[in-house]
Write a structure and sequence with these properties.
alpha/beta; Rossmann fold; 35% helix; 15% strand; Type-B_Carboxylest/Lipase; Carboxylic ester hydrolase; CarbesteraseB; Carboxylesterase_B_AS
Length: 555
């Protein structure tokens, strides 16, 4: 299997209750049905509804559906992998972007196969299910060849201002339409998608009682959000990759209101006008998306869920991490070695004095110095060494500690954990030499096989096989509770189960435990969020730099 596959023809499938879908057929009889609409939208900033009809009872699934609008500046960035010849980048369409792509094995009639539904990342701000890196044809073909066929789904959801804006005006508008809560539109979209899967996936050979959701970065955060939702959608197993519930905070309505008013002010709409929301809806999707980074005050921005009193069963927070609910049959958490490199552009702005000052705002001087000393960050370090140690601090506080605590507190028998330590050896990779945030996507989807060494290919197949086995309800490796065990992918293209005591020299769990024991972890997390995403610059008239410079010098 080398690179992407080209379709060998077309195929058609009858979907109960909807009609006929046409798709692409590939080697081994694997079929792909793209751009399937799962949700309906009547306007911006409202809840989506379940799509239960197709015009004329037919859907052309040979083409990708629209993407959700992304921040304008982000569209200049290349994708993780190039576009596919048979799937060029689609348009952005805010009201028609709720689509999903399904890949199924051959001869699925009457079968009940596990379903692996992927939720993409992008900081709740960007990205989409149509990215070629997430194409599941190779992964499905692999599942067939190893005798564990499965159905694969990628789903779009609203991101950025279209998916996560919240305010009192939006809350009132939702109430007039009969909805409780506010914001969280992208999270509610994901729920609608999973309800669509539950209702229609059997026509594609999938078992609605064997749905595993998995996601990377904001997709992993999404998985955690769905686990703790007051009304969770139907799924049975979950994997969160490089992102946990509190990696991106859920904001209070007051915090969202500040953001909303900053957006209106930037667009020269009176924030106090009674029709401010209606005025905002008259602006084009491109104008709204184009305001995202300027209003946020940084190019390293996020969308943020809302503590709306409706979505969550309990208030999220690091101190509130608890066992997943008993209805979840399997739970897996994972991270990569160099998670925080995604914030490197933000870190470049920090001196020792500015870093200490920002930590002190949230922690006070004594606790700020305690954290800095734990990570060996002091005034005499070179800029490069301080940079590396700040990356370690942020990787722990933003990502790794959450997975560790979540695994420790899980009462589910099928709880598993992994670390991805394999560093990039790709010659054309600007992050060569790092096990960077999202590098695991080059492995799990099997779409970079021509770039891997023979040993790297074996690692990719092993990881993909582990995820598929987990979807089947199997134990892919030693359970976490058996000796506090983690699967370690890499660093030498090997899969090795290690205990936390064995891995302490690499992972430094005891260092994270000291911050937790001191009772300051949540405040340290808030400080790290401020340092990484520059929240304090929101609405200050930030001028977005030329992002082409980032591509020339990404680190």
């Amino acid at each position: 299997m080398s690179g992407f596959q080209n379709p060998t023809g077309k195929t058609r499938l009858a979907v109960d209750g909807l009609g006929t879908v046409e798709g692409l057929e590939f080697a081994q009889g694997v079929c792909q049905f793209s751009g399937i609409p799962y949700g309906t939208l009547s306007k911006r900033w409202t809840r989506s509804g379940l799509q239960t009809t197709w015009p004329s009872g037919f859907h052309d699934g040979t083409k990708l559906g629209p993407n959700a609008p992304n921040p304008t500046e982000y569209n200049s960035f290349p994708g993780i992998l190039p576009d596919l010849p048979h799937h060029p980048t689609p348009i952005e369409d805010e009201l028609n972007c709720l689509v999903l792509n399904i890949v199924s094995p051959p001869n699925t009639a009457g079968q009940k196969l596990p379903v692996l539904a992927f939720i993409h990342g992008g900081s709740f701000l960007s990205g989409g299910a149509n990215m070629s890196a997430y194409d599941c044809v190779n992964l499905c073909s692999f599942s067939v060849s190893r005798g564990t066929p499965a159905v694969f789904v990628n789903l779009n959801y609203r991101v950025g201002l279209g998916g996560f804006l919240a305010s009192r005006a939006i809350k009132a508008d939702l109430e007039r339409d009969g909805y409780e809560g506010c914001g969280n539109f992208g999270l509610y979209d994901q729920q609608i998608a999973l309800h669509w899967i539950n209702r229609y996936i059997s026509s594609f050979g999938g078992d609605p009682e064997q749905v595993m959701i998995f996601g990377e970065s904001a997709g992993g955060i999404s998985v955690c959000n769905q686990i703790v939702a007051k009304d969770p959608p139907p799924f049975q197993r979950a994997i969160t990759m490089s992102g946990h519930l509190n990696t991106i905070f859920a904001w209070s309505l007051e915090q969202h209101e500040k953001h909303y008013r900053a957006l209106l002010t930037h667009l020269k709409i009176d924030p106090d006008a009674s029709d401010s929301l209606e005025q905002l809806r008259t602006r084009s999707q491109d104008e709204v998306a184009g305001a995202t980074l300027t209003v946020a005050g940084t190019v390293i921005a996020t969308g943020n869920p809302c503590l709306d009193g409706n979505f969550y069963a309990d208030t999220p927070g690091f101190d509130n991490i608890t066992t997943p609910p008993s209805w979840l049959k399997g739970y897996m958490v994972g991270d990569v070695m160099h998670e925080a490199m995604i914030f490197d552009q933000s870190f470049k702005e920090e001196t020792f004095d500015s870093l200490r000052a920002r930590l002190t705002i949230h922690l006070g001087e004594e606790d700020a110095d305690f954290v800095l000393n734990l990570y060996g960050i002091h005034k005499d370090l070179s800029d490069d060494e301080r940079f590396v140690r700040l990356e370690e601090l942020v990787s722990d506080i933003y990502f790794k500690a959450h997975n560790w605590v979540a695994a420790r507190r899980s009462n589910l028998p099928q709880t598993f954990a992994y670390h991805f330590d394999q560093r990039s050896a790709f010659e054309d990779d600007p992050f060569k030499g790092l096990a960077y945030h999202a590098i695991d996507l080059h492995y799990i989807f099997l779409n970079s096989m021509e770039r891997h060494t023979p040993e790297g290919k074996k690692l990719a197949y092993a990881m993909a096989g582990h995820f598929i086995d987990f979807a089947y309800g199997k134990d892919p490796w030693t359970k976490y509770a058996d000796g506090y065990s983690w699967m370690r992918y890499g660093p030498d293209n090997k899969c090795t189960v290690v205990t936390e005591s064995e891995d302490e020299p690499v992972r430094h769990f005891s260092r994270m435990q000291k911050i937790i024991d001191k009772g300051i972890f949540q405040r340290a997390l808030e400080a790290v969020d401020d340092i990484s995403t520059k929240r304090y610059r929101m609405g200050t008239g930030y001028k977005v730099p030329d992002l082409s410079l980032f591509m020339e010098n990404p680190c």
